[in-house]
């Protein structure tokens, strides 16, 4: 299995970075590269460092890290939205090259940088890598904490469902319902060339994604700009913000390693945890819910796996970690009873679909994060069982992009980058306790 996972990362390598999938995703993706670097540190720490630095070479002047960095050698029709849709090189503060998207993805990068360094802290270049990355990561977090604090309480808001990483989650159905979709004949879905329509977002949802992306582009990617009715989306997502807080803790560790005071970063992480609990924790549900900043309802009534990701965080208020663990194993997610792995959405919801992208299948990166959360909060037995199911399912499906959570049937792309990378991380075992 080690050899197979390493072969996937070798095959998906394109120059200094790694694509998630040669067919479906032929460019560099932001949080994919962070997870891929976490696995690469087990094989080749220098390549892991290059993976992250290549991504951050496309960072915008305002600090944002774009969710796609486009490979100019790939034909425009191989992926949509393509560079000529985003037009990043014409946007204020964007790099002249390479072309990128204008939206972002979950900020797991500081955690990845710290883990990459810890894999080989005495290796020549590792400390210098930390020193180069630290100001870039600080700028990235500053962008999220300032430009994206659309709710005014300190949490980062999403301006597009794709920014959550969990693209077509039912948690976005309510805020998306007011978005007027782009006409179907105004764009071409390249994803359907490589995947089954039953596994992918619907045309209605995709039309709404295109409308939101075009409106954001036409505003010059200004986060606080007014956008027309029918093209507004602003949501505080618990998964995105949990990863921001986890990366704040990682930034504190990086600061200490560089001889700086980690205190401000640690305090910031603790403060954000308090805000996350105050705004998004739902005791009756036993998990965190997203908050729609544009609609009248405070929270959409859907329960997604993103609401479990704060289990990653230390110093949660009393009872919350226990409630999250109970939710993992309860009727909504069924870990260890109905399911091999944690599904991406509530099993009891009418919107749950075990094969359609983020509407119900299990994803390996989410399960890797939750495994770390179980370890964080004193459940080594549960973490070991999840680790075993993760590795068995990934190996049996040729490192599938995602799987049916109950049967383990592989779905989406095969030989998927972060699935292979995170298998390497778990196989290496030294990651326990980091």
Give a structural overview.
The protein has about 425 residues and is mainly α. The protein has a single domain (about 1-65, about 105-155, about 240-430), classed as Glycosyltransferase (Alpha/alpha barrel). Helix content is about 40%, strand content about 5%. A hairpin with a 2-residue loop joins β1 and β2. α2 (about 30-45) packs parallel to α14 (about 415-430), α12 runs antiparallel to α13 (about 380-395) and α13 (about 380-395) packs across α14.
Give me the secondary-structure topology.
Layout: H1 2-11, E1 13-14, E2 17-18, E3 28-29, H2 30-43, H3 45-56, E4 68-69, H4 83-86, H5 109-119, H6 126-146, E5 157-158, H7 173-176, H8 203-218, E6 235-236, H9 238-257, H10 263-280, E7 281-282, E8 287-288, E9 291-292, H11 320-329, E10 362-363, H12 364-376, H13 380-396, E11 402-403, E12 410-411, H14 417-428
Antiparallel strand pairs: 1-2, 3-4, 5-6, 6-9, 7-8, 10-11, 11-12
Keywords: Glycosidase, Hydrolase
Domain Mannosylglycerate hydrolase MGH1-like glycoside hydrolase: 25-419
Protein name: Mannosylglycerate hydrolase MGH1-like glycoside hydrolase domain-containing protein
């Amino acid at each position: 299995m080690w050899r197979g996972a390493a072969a996937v990362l070798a095959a998906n390598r394109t120059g200094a970075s790694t694509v998630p999938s040669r067919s479906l995703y032929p460019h560099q993706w932001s949080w994919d590269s962070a997870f891929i670097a976490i696995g690469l540190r087990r094989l080749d720490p220098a390549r892991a460092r290059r993976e992250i630095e290549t991504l951050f070479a496309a960072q915008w002047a305002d600090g944002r890290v774009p969710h796609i960095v486009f490979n100019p050698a790939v034909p425009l029709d191989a992926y949509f939205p393509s560079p000529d849709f985003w037009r990043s090189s014409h946007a204020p503060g964007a790099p002249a090259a390479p072309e990128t998207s204008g939206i972002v993805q979950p900020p797991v990068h500081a955690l990845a940088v710290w883990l990459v360094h810890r894999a080989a802290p005495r290796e020549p270049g590792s400390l210098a890598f930390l020193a180069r990355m630290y100001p870039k990561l600080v700028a990235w977090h500053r962008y999220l904490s300032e430009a994206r604090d659309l709710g005014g309480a300190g949490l980062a808001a999403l301006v597009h469902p794709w920014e959550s990483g969990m693209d077509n989650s039912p948690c976005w159905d309510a805020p998306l319902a007011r978005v007027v979709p782009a006409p179907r004949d105004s764009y071409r879905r390249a994803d359907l060339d490589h995947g089954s329509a039953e596994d992918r977002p619907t045309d209605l949802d995709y039309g709404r994604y295109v409308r939101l992306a075009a409106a954001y582009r036409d505003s010059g990617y200004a986060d606080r700009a007014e956008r027309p009715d029918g093209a507004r989306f602003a949501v505080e997502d618990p998964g995105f913000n949990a990863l921001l807080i986890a990366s704040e803790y990682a930034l504190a560790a990086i600061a200490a390693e560089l001889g700086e005071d980690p205190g401000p970063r640690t305090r910031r992480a603790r403060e954000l945890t308090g805000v996350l609990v105050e705004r998004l924790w739902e005791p009756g549900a036993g998990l965190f819910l997203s908050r729609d900043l544009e609609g009248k309802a405070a929270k959409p009534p859907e329960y997604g796996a993103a609401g479990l990701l704060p289990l990653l965080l230390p110093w949660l208020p009393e009872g919350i970690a226990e409630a999250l663990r109970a939710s993992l194993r309860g009727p909504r997610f069924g870990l260890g009873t109905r399911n091999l792995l944690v599904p991406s959405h509530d099993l009891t919801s009418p919107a749950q679909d075990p094969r359609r992208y983020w509407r119900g299948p299990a994803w390996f990166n989410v399960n890797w994060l939750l495994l770390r959360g179980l370890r964080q909060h004193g459940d080594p037995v549960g973490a070991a069982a999840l680790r075993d199911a993760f590795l068995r399912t990934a190996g049996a499906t040729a490192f599938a992009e995602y799987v049916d959570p109950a049967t383990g049937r592989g779905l989406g792309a095969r030989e998927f980058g972060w699935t292979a990378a995170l298998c390497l991380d778990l196989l290496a075992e030294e990651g326990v306790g980091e």
